Amino acid sequence: MRQLVRTAPAALPAVLRAPLAMSAALATAVLVALGILHFRDSGLTGIDAALLPSIDGVRPPWRHVALVFDFGGEPVGSVILIALLSGVCWLLRQVRTAVLTVAGVVVTVAVTTVLKPVVGRTIHGEFLSYPSGHTAMATALALVIGLLLTERMGLGRAAGVALSLGLALVAGVAMGWAEVALGAHYPTDALGGFCAALAAVPGTAWVLDRVADRL
């Protein structure tokens, strides 16, 4: 008689594999296109020229809000957020998602770290800016939360995609706004960071599931 074995909940729910693969491909294309467009170029054009003057240099109390968001992307803040989300996943017995919380952020931030010197875009004449690591980190964590909720709630494809990408968008916009408002990034840097997370997290989750299934 064949023994039935209950598998661990997937890091990437089956209903989201195809749609997130497509969104990851699109995000990768945008990430690369923006990198080429702003290669060694720190000038203000297009979206940056239109948005930066109205966002950069916000005053209190909005500056305080921006600083709170920014702290979440700093080493101490990000470690706290990752530890909290990973801990919740462990308590819910979502072991793969707990691992993805760490691995997904690490891979995402690694992508932004490698791309910055390659693209060579700077802000204020000296700081490498494309893509935004803070925005990428926030988007990655929000996307992991979306994957977790989709799996736990047994959502269908449409609801799961809407929830996961919706959370990612909200987190990306919030952190991206904060980074631009504090003068740390151009708007397209934030968009690049958002795309980096959308490209990295689903792929990391898929690899994690494959490795875990083989083990």
TrEMBL record:
<dbReference type="InterPro" id="IPR036938">
    <property type="entry name" value="PAP2/HPO_sf"/>
</dbReference>
<dbReference type="Pfam" id="PF01569">
    <property type="entry name" value="PAP2"/>
</dbReference>
<feature type="domain" description="Phosphatidic acid phosphatase type 2/haloperoxidase">
    <location>
        <begin position="98"/>
        <end position="200"/>
    </location>
</feature>
<feature type="transmembrane region" description="Helical">
    <location>
        <begin position="20"/>
        <end position="39"/>
    </location>
</feature>
<feature type="transmembrane region" description="Helical">
    <location>
        <begin position="131"/>
        <end position="149"/>
    </location>
</feature>
<feature type="transmembrane region" description="Helical">
    <location>
        <begin position="190"/>
        <end position="208"/>
    </location>
</feature>
<dbReference type="InterPro" id="IPR000326">
    <property type="entry name" value="PAP2/HPO"/>
</dbReference>
<keyword id="KW-0812">Transmembrane</keyword>
<feature type="transmembrane region" description="Helical">
    <location>
        <begin position="161"/>
        <end position="178"/>
    </location>
</feature>
<keyword id="KW-1133">Transmembrane helix</keyword>
<feature type="transmembrane region" description="Helical">
    <location>
        <begin position="99"/>
        <end position="119"/>
    </location>
</feature>
<feature type="transmembrane region" description="Helical">
    <location>
        <begin position="75"/>
        <end position="92"/>
    </location>
</feature>
<keyword id="KW-0472">Membrane</keyword>
<protein>
    <submittedName>
        <fullName>Membrane protein</fullName>
    </submittedName>
</protein>
